[in-house]
């Protein structure tokens, strides 16, 4: 080391050493921007500028070396061998150029280091060829203890220099020229120190040798060329930086439009970001520049993240809060180089939305209670976890009573308010741990857990029914009172799997509803048997519609004043092959619940019209219509089609409806009734007096007749209150221009009272029981369409009736 320092200090011109440093710096600076410029080009232009870069690299090392050789002050005259000098220049261009070409074409650090070692080898070759071209009048001795280490050190230093030139860090890239200069300095000064010159005046320089003065212009020319190339490279570099700046600005403008956060990075260092990233991270753009992207995503190795592959991660904000994000890494060309763009998508809203979706999937959106699916899952979980000897649990099904009129009267919005309040009352009635759910519509369910007292489910059922029916629900239009029916199934007594428990609780609920509002029923095996009977009855009724097992019976109606039979009410009967004649009371309600009343009602209409068409022309037929049939918007078309097909005039058909029809859908019902009235069909309100709003219906709906319900007739004439009601209805009908029929007349006294009070028509067993079609025709033939009845002793009956009727009271044979 001492010999090297002594060589530098005493055997070299310091001015030329400084010049060599300057030339090396200019040459390296010229080569790098030219190489970058070549990378940006394509085709022949790229090859041309790559060649210029290679030549510049070799010339830089050669000129630096030969300037230092010229700075050497030997103890004897010296010159240069032109052939070896040219060989040293050629080796510098070829070998160093090869290393530079390899370095430019790869980003792999190992390959770049190898390329740098090739460059170092080229420097070593040009140096020792140059020293071999250095001729002196004397004998040269070499110290290989310095030569070999200098070659190794020079080659390794060249490798590190090229590795630094491709580094992402700007500071490391700035070290590259210094490292190349260091490689040249190590080789030169170590080589010069290893060379010992012994002057010998007897030795002469070759005749063709070039003096230092002759080679200086060559070196100067190369230096000037490198200077010119450096100026060109400077322009390239400035233009590239301007383009890069413009590209970054455009990229920044586009990035600010994006909703996702975008970080533009050079390696791990953040260069810039968009506004979305600023808001997400909680830092301004200037504060992020130069920071480490990896610190923002501590759980993610950004540099090894596969390109365009989304990963879930957490972003650490400025305030320390961890934000769930999705990260996508892409390489984007910005200016002359590829830069890393990290797209960051905030997942908080997505996670909130997914949580809401999960909640909506398992909860009722109106009340916030668990829905049917979630309740079933909870029930299945508790059923599966119940072990032998554990406490049981119970399932309670709850159905609201009188809820439909709330929707019809106050509207569905008010109905929703009531449902939410019902949910609150049910929840407040439970213990902690019990579950209440809304299964749909006005149906709720409760899962009562840890049942260790046998009567606990019954007590809870009563408490729930009281909670709903005890106090009215206050709405803007006033208070409404509803009730609740509750069915209870207990585990494991009534079943130990969810489907069975729900089914049995439903059967108990059905039984509770049939017993009246505000009641509850515990499941028992008899309920299941009755339900099986109901299913059997339903199946039989469906079969009856197909197999023509239905028939109509007709009960006549007579004029109270004349006794003339004016019409007959068609009453359906079911003649089952096994059970015989099934009365309507056993299957009409079932038909309404199952929807079979629609095809059944149409059959009754068509059959009644067809058979009435065979009667005398002055007789009409009355047909009852169910509220379920009025849900069909085409009911009027069905009735007129039945009349047309039977050839029966519309005025010979009378349609009887109950108040339940008017409660269903007043607007649609009124429209259908007006259609029927307009077609000439007569309308009758059946069972009048049993509904709370019948009087208002008489004013709004176009009825021809009202029928006094038989419940008021049974106690006539002895019961004064019943007599007053019947008398009032008959008087009201007369005032409204409607005829009145009293049904359920079974005694001569009832007949006489009704006729005396001015009723228009009478119907009941006193006149005739319902008769099959052929029997009814025979009845008409025998009576001559005029009614008479025997007295109690078989003699003709005589009552103090108005004169027109007295003439018809003759004894019947």
Keywords, please?
4 domains; 813 residues; single chain; eight-stranded mixed barrel; Alpha-Beta Plaits; five-stranded antiparallel sheet; 28 helices; Beta-Lactamase; 19% strand; 26 strands; alpha/beta
- What is the tally of beta strands? 26
Calculate Rg over CA atoms.
55 Å
Runs with pLDDT <50, length 5+? 790-813
* Spatial ordering of strands, largest sheet: 17-18-20-21-22-23-24-25
The pLDDT mean sits at: 79
Helix content: 40-55%
Measured by DSSP, the beta-strand proportion falls in 15-25%
Could you characterize the architecture of this molecule?
With 813 residues, the protein is α/β, with parallel strands linked by helices. It has 4 domains: 2-237, no CATH class; 258-351, PAS domain (Beta-Lactamase), CATH 3.30.450; 363-523, Reverse transcriptase/Diguanylate cyclase domain (Alpha-Beta Plaits); 547-806, TIM Barrel (Alpha-Beta Barrel). 53% of the residues lie in helices and 19% in strands. It has 28 helices and 26 strands. The strands form 6 sheets. It has an 8-stranded mixed β-barrel with strand order 17-18-20-21-22-23-24-25, surrounded by 6 helices. It has a 5-stranded antiparallel sheet with strand order 6-5-9-8-7. The chain has a 5-stranded mixed sheet with strand order 11-12-10-15-16, with helices on both faces. A hairpin with a 3-residue loop joins strand 18 (565-576) and strand 19 (580-582). Helix 3 (43-71) packs across helix 5 (109-133) and helix 5 packs across helix 6. The protein starts with a helix and ends in a 7-residue tail after the last helix. Residues 790-813 have low confidence and may be disordered.
